[in-house]
Amino acid sequence: MIENALRGSKRYWTWVFFLLAVIFVGFLFYLKQYHEGLGITGLSRDVTWGFYIAQLTFLVGVAASAVMVVLPYYLHNYKAFGKITILGEFLAISSVIMCMLFVVVDIGQPSRMFNLFLHPSPNSMLFWDTVVLSGYLILNIVISIVTLGAERKGIAPPGWIRPVIVFSIPWAVSIHTVTAFLYAGLGARPFWMTAILAPRFLASAFAAGPALLILLVLLMRKITKFHVGDEPIKKLTVIVTYAMIINVFFVLMEFFTAFYSAMPEHVAHFKYMYFGLDGNANLVPWMWTSVVLSIFALVMLIVPKFRYNFKLLPVTCVAVFIGLWIDKGIGLIITGFVPSVLGEVVSYKPTFPEIMITIAIYAVGALLVTVFYKVALTVRGEVTYDRVRPLETKAVGTK
Amino acid sequence: MGIDRRGFMKVSGLTILGIAGGASIDGLASPQTPRKKAAEAGTRRYAMVVDLKKCHSQEGCRDCVQACHLYHNVPDFDNRKDEIKWIWKDSFHHAFHSMEHEHLEESITEGPALLLCNHCDNPPCTRVCPTKATWKREEDGIVMMDWHRCIGCRYCVVACPYGSRSFNWRDPRPHIKEVNPDFPTRTRGVVEKCTFCELRLAKGQKPACVEACKEGALIFGDLEDPESEVRKALQDRFSIRRKPELGTEPEVYYLV
Q1: pLDDT tens digits along A285-330
Q2: CA distance A279 to chain B (A)
Q3: Considering only CB atoms, which chain B residues are within 8 Å of A103?
Q4: Residue B187 resides in a domain
Q5: Nearest residue of chain B to residue A129 (CA atoms)
Q6: Contact residues on chain A for B151, CB-CB shorter than 8 A
């Protein structure tokens, strides 16, 4: 099955080698970080978690969002998603692996990583995050191998896989809930001390993840023969619409609670994000970009004429994805540290090596998605091929 | 008997899982380290009392900070980003910002406050540690650190409401001016903080900072002992703690 990833067109290989080159460059920067310490990042005594952990948080959401195609298909028997569930699962696997890499690069003593398992600490949310993320990875690997394997042989998947798939649905919710619990239970950080954090994480994830999936499906329609039809794309767009509305609603709730109560320790963080605090307006342009993109996306999604316009849809999805990425991948984590526990406004900016390492991990994700989708599409090609032609012409090269 | 690639990958995948799972079960099943057992021997509750007025009487004095950092091989990075500190002077405004008001006695608000790990009774930092590399010692309440187990995830730094924990962003060793051979140096990538000088206490000595303070502004002792200096100081004068509303129960008190 996996051997299909080793046969491909020139375009395929160019893309693969480009990603490998990016990964290689990022790896060199990681070696530098490994030898010199995390001091080469922009992180400091005051802003102790930054870009790496923020990407982890965002990508856990993308991983969890696979449930938005799995649930309608397996629980509601929504047949139109049949062709894309595997794409959702492969996207989930790639995202979880990226999450794990972001944990590894953020850790000061990566060689001691195994202490997480040698000294399991159920009182730590990081322990539970490791448990749910690894569990989710295993579930999705098993599910995709079994279902795609069955499809390759042209048979129905074994009966035992169905309960496993159903089990993976609440598990997907758990990964993002536990990730929110990393932050939401800390008295030291009033910005994250909000019960709505986990629901908000899920809402933004169920908008950003399916938006990315739409973009990938549209891209594949363009560059491959894989055609899923319009219906699943439209359905995904509806999911993005609802999730985006709920997410924006949740953000407005946060605003109300902070500004109406006028409690300084809550207000300060929002001020820093959107207006700047003590002359520090680092995040202001980013956050307003996010606001503009989100409002634009909402208009495009809510008006049916725009929502189902396949020319505009990619633009909308990019707006959703980037808007939410800024919100979670930049705003949410950094703002938790500004002002600091001592009430100081400290700036943080990721350094060049930090950005290169981050890009390299995203490149790993892109490479995994490419390889997995290639395998899935080729398997699909084989299936239809076998049915039409006699068996001796089975050696199919490219898609 | 042949084994194909898929078979091999399945078997090796399961093996890796088995090892990881086995290791975690081992960890869960093994008895808790002897830390908790010692509690029976009669518990103490170490605490520090800082007399802010006495501390202010020597302007610019850094005796306690220097003594501590020298004794514990704390590096001096000279930049705020990589800075490591176990005990330091900060403004009243930073230390007690929720308690401040415009018309508070100037002698209190204008002088610095001495900050260190609060050795909380209910420490949020130990709660979040994923490897039990930091824990509260039941027999005397000291919040301890194992620099050999810490993986450097910095969750404890995030959870500490007092900014008392420092992370070694770079190799600290080249930045230690004078190495004290009686105390270990740390490696990069681990968290460190004040330990109430538990090694000195074991030898019957006072913490280095308390010993260094000529003004007698730092009082250290056991709160469980009604005759102790700390108990008396807290009885005689009005004292405050940092962020008491968080329920962490800090064991560093400030006399005002």
Answers
A1: 999 999 999 999 999 999 999 999 999 999 999 999 999 999 999 9
A2: 18
A3: 153
A4: yes
A5: B130
A6: 107-110, 112-113, 115-116
User: Which chain B residues contact residue A117 at CB under 8 A?
Assistant: 20, 23-24, 27
Torsion angle, CA of A285/A291/A293/A297, rounded to 10 degrees?
A: 180
Interchain CB distance below 8 Å, B24 and A117: yes
Q: CB distance from B167 to chain A under 8 Å?
A: yes
Of A109, A110, A187, the CB nearest to B150: A109
User: The domain that contains B120 carries what CATH number?
Assistant: 3.30.70.20
* CATH superfamily of domain region A2-382: Formate dehydrogenase/DMSO reductase domain (1.20.1630.10)
How many Å from the N-terminal Cα to the C-terminal Cα in chain B?
82
> pLDDT tens digits for A207-254?
999 999 999 999 988 888 887 889 999 999 999 999 999 999 999 999
Burial class (CB in 10 A: 0-12, 13-18, 19+), A287: buried
Q: How many domains does chain B have?
A: 1
Residue B239: inside a domain: yes
Q: How far is CA B122 from the centre of its chain?
A: 13
**Of B243, B244, B249, nearest in space to B141 by CA:** B249
Q: Are residues B82 and A39, on separate chains, in Cβ contact within 8 Å?
A: yes
Contact A102, A56 (CB under 8 A): yes
ipTM of the complex, rounded to two decimals? 0.90
> Which residues span the domain enclosing B50?
43-255
Residue B102 lies in a domain: yes
pTM as predicted: 0.90
B43-82 residue pLDDT tens = 899 999 999 999 988 888 999 999 999 999 999 998 999 9
